[in-house]
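Rotation project, supervised by the postdoc (A.L.). Task for the rotation student: set up a whole-complex structure prediction and record inputs and outputs verbatim in this book. Inputs entered:
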Amino acid sequence: MEPIIVKYVDKPSLNAPVLIEGLPGVGNVGKIATEYLKEKLEAKLFVKIFSKYFPPQVLMKGDGTLYLVKNELYYYKNPNGRDLIFLVGDYQGMSAEGQYELSYRVLEIVREFGVKEIFTLGGYGTGQLVDEPRVFGAATDMEFVEEMKKYGVYFSPSDPAGGIVGAAGLLLGLGMELFDMRGVCLMGETSGYFSDPKSALYVLRIVKEYFNLELSLDELEERSKEITEITSQIKEEQKMEMDKKEDLGYIG
Amino acid sequence: MEPIIVKYVDKPSLNAPVLIEGLPGVGNVGKIATEYLKEKLEAKLFVKIFSKYFPPQVLMKGDGTLYLVKNELYYYKNPNGRDLIFLVGDYQGMSAEGQYELSYRVLEIVREFGVKEIFTLGGYGTGQLVDEPRVFGAATDMEFVEEMKKYGVYFSPSDPAGGIVGAAGLLLGLGMELFDMRGVCLMGETSGYFSDPKSALYVLRIVKEYFNLELSLDELEERSKEITEITSQIKEEQKMEMDKKEDLGYIG
Amino acid sequence: MEPIIVKYVDKPSLNAPVLIEGLPGVGNVGKIATEYLKEKLEAKLFVKIFSKYFPPQVLMKGDGTLYLVKNELYYYKNPNGRDLIFLVGDYQGMSAEGQYELSYRVLEIVREFGVKEIFTLGGYGTGQLVDEPRVFGAATDMEFVEEMKKYGVYFSPSDPAGGIVGAAGLLLGLGMELFDMRGVCLMGETSGYFSDPKSALYVLRIVKEYFNLELSLDELEERSKEITEITSQIKEEQKMEMDKKEDLGYIG
Amino acid sequence: MEPIIVKYVDKPSLNAPVLIEGLPGVGNVGKIATEYLKEKLEAKLFVKIFSKYFPPQVLMKGDGTLYLVKNELYYYKNPNGRDLIFLVGDYQGMSAEGQYELSYRVLEIVREFGVKEIFTLGGYGTGQLVDEPRVFGAATDMEFVEEMKKYGVYFSPSDPAGGIVGAAGLLLGLGMELFDMRGVCLMGETSGYFSDPKSALYVLRIVKEYFNLELSLDELEERSKEITEITSQIKEEQKMEMDKKEDLGYIG
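Outputs recorded:
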């Protein structure tokens, strides 16, 4: 068995497409954002990727049928600008080797379709509940840093500490060194404790504006309100807990 | 050394054979069921599979001689219908890579013999002792879902949560995506705490009827009665424990 | 880099040689026994084996120089019978894959020199301190079982429970299935808590007799007396501890 | 993807160059020492090494841009003697296999440039705070042992117990066995609890003298003074703690 098996469902002709990655990760921010894009823009599946670097597992569809875990590429023909390719899936590679092999292979595939720029979407886990998640960035070159600052992306000399692990980092790192591609990683601030549609919303607002997408974010706004409420409740409870302790004359 | 070494003991000519998998797993349900079939139907060994994906181990036969751990294929020429191939063995692959490679190789082998349908047998661990284990199913297509429902197989939108891990899942997932095969996984409900011949019995009743097999299940009925008795005893004890606590005015 | 690198120091012509394996393992019984043979018989180094399946490590010789961890083959031209090849080394392969690959490669090498029989020496860890360690056996065929019984080797239907893990098992398992070789594993009973020259001594007595070796076991007798003394002391202490508890009217 | 990807930035012609390795390790002694050499001597980058044996990670440069984790080779044309090649990087290989493959590949590369001698620099973690760290050595041959003793390198029959793990050991071990190279590992004594520029300083003093380098160690002296102060403080505190306990009539 080849370590990575690529099945082409279609071979579309695309206009200077940009790869947008959103695989599972911290707070599932990238996955939520990219799958939202894929669905709202009615992107078309064109590549399936199976691999021994994924878990040896099938998942249920809910109707009694099953499917093998995989990654997928979808394309979107953008009437207002460059076309988009979305990378989504059930898992990232389970080992360092798998991560490298899968990212490298995705870059080989998208190069065929003319990709020269990459956006990787993810979460930046801070362990803190925040009302207004910032969107942190990391880019392959200073030009991209400056450009993204205009869209409100936050570049910090010390964040993300520890760099970026997984596909969101590797696609950019391998892309710039070995494929002559450039790109940026957008990371929505998130507690990292739960799947975070609110953080995904803040990331998508930037993506929407940058690519000039005709896209309603209403549904994601709705889902993110729930997060706002849960966050408020937890903060309220934490505050009451603190107040009680102060009344008793001590702090835990 | 080749990662997987296949030794053909025989190359039988088979009639539209169906692969039935029963490797070790939850409650050893699949293993018990498939090895029972293999023995009662006096199936013939035709392929031995050795691999570095198995543990580096030999096992004892009981007479002072040893054998290398392996998987095996047996065939059964069914006078009442399609022939059967049984996949049994000491272990499943020990890593994700091993699982993929071994399942892929088994599919390559059985394709040569004309296999287009696969039944994988396993256990569905619920952590609960049950009197009448249900048999859950997961299939590659809706047609197979509908067909198996007629035999009392239970399809649930939420089970098995987490999908199916290991050979029972991969043979179907790889089979449908890369080998144009279809199939179903039958999972007997089991506590998962011990080897469960009763769960295997309920699975085999469906297999026997579906394939119209001349097969006595008496011995397995016998072994499963022991399980019924043990289960009853444990439940009795649990109930007495509960009653005592209630008498004392509290629940643990 | 090739996963396994074989350096031939010499290519001796040997007379129906038998491979004797003694790599590190339970109680280092096999290693002590085989290295004793190698040294007392002044066997000659003819093959060095390096591999990425060993730890990435060099060891110190004591004079300030270092050497890369390895396995080695030595040969002994036996004036009283068949020649012997000894497999010794710093480590066994560190993964299942490494174990398979290394054992397979050793079999390929020794086949070139005419090996058809294999003795693997090891320890059988029982967790118990014993005065007179038995030597357990496991063979590739009944003929060998019967032959070794004459030398006092103990064959048990239930031992070793769990089979034999590592090179001592694989060389026999792969040898019989893929190289048409036969052999036996001799396992000296050992607590498994420390390196056990006494257990090695009991194994070597059988090897010496079987191969009709001109070999003094005196030094090993000496080292094994120390073990006898330590064992006696520990047993004494354990007994006193027990007696005290009985005096106090309970058993821990 | 090739497991190791080598990008040549330049192919300099070098004069009997010596490889000096300083990858991350115990106390980062080797890394601090070699990167100090590289910077002070204004060595030139000529090879980048990417690999799936490194973590799947990009790191931040501090200006919002990122880079893929890697190893690098720099060369220094030494006006006073043999040229030097420095091996530095973000990580060592993450698995035994990765360690072997990477060291082997580095040896292949530097052989092209004429390397026949290797100095690997590292720390020897003793768990103790020391005022005057010794520099321990381990060499491929006795000639090198004798030569390095003249420079104050300390060779001990029992140190480093457990040998040398990782690139510092493998480059020498593989180098001597498979590349006909010789060399020495210099290990600065260090507690191992923190990055230790002082230990690096003591190692560099030997390297500087041996290779007759025009090199100011002032900055490293400065950084190492901080370590001296911290060490003194901790020792002072430990002493006071001890004294207090003694005053109270017991020792913890």
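Student's summary: The domain at 4-220 of chain B is CATH 3.40.50.10900 (Rossmann fold).
Supervisor addendum: The mean pLDDT of chain B is 94.
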